[in-house]
Design goal:
Blueprint: H1 2-31, H2 43-56, E1 71-72, H3 73-77, E2 90-91, H4 95-105, H5 122-129, E3 133-134, E4 143-146, E5 152-159, E6 164-172, E7 175-182, E8 186-190
Antiparallel strand pairs: 1-2, 3-8, 4-5, 4-8, 5-6, 6-7
Length: 195
């Protein structure tokens, strides 16, 4: 009788612990992106994979809240000098905040992004500071700076034959977006360096 009762308590305790672990795992997946997985390959590939993850994941980070407000998860991570929204997030143009987040998550240096934290043009400053700025031939994982100097994206694939790149960026149509454009749409590219 005592043995059965102890066994029953142990079983219930193990079930409760198992449920707690499952709940905590679910909460982790819902609230944050995975930190750099050294098994993904090079830093460039890991950056592209993280950008793809954020694009495909519907954890609430993908969209502005509310749409059109610029209130977003990524700007909030840097406690930007921006207006605070009613929902606790911060509101500013956030394409560079997205790039900053992805680079930091994957272990790339974000030194040089801090001087102009949310400006797309800080991609060029970053590249110049790290000697990785190049106006030609983009690579997977690069920051791609639009000719307007007002939007930055992450290169996830390169088609050398057609001279087109596919990118993922924040703050395009009020969300994380993916698109393919010719290289000529960009003023240049900054390659990542490890932190």
């Amino acid at each position: 009788m005592v043995r059965r009762s102890l066994s029953g308590r142990m079983t219930r305790m193990l079930m409760v612990c198992g449920l707690a672990v499952a709940l905590l795992s679910t909460m982790r997946m819902a609230t944050a992106s995975p930190i750099h997985d050294p098994g993904c390959g090079s830093l460039r590939v890991c950056i592209a994979n993280e950008a793809r993850y954020e694009f495909s994941n519907d954890d609430g980070h993908k969209f502005e809240h509310p749409a059109g407000s610029n209130c977003n998860f990524f700007s909030t991570q840097w406690h930007a000098d921006a207006p605070k929204c009613d929902n606790g997030m911060y509101a500013e143009a956030w394409c560079m905040d997205f790039v900053h987040w992805v680079y930091k998550q994957e272990g790339a240096s974000v030194s040089g992004l801090g001087s102009l934290p949310h400006l797309a043009s800080s991609a060029k400053v970053y590249g110049q500071n790290h000697n990785t700025w190049h106006p030609n031939t983009p690579h997977v994982g690069d920051m791609a700076l639009w000719n307007s100097n007002e939007h930055v994206e992450i290169v996830i694939s390169v088609d050398s034959a057609t001279k087109h790149i596919t990118t993922i960026s924040g703050n395009w149509s009020d969300q994380i977006s993916k698109k393919t454009e010719p290289w000529s749409s960009y003023i240049g590219f900054a390659s990542p360096v490890a932190a």
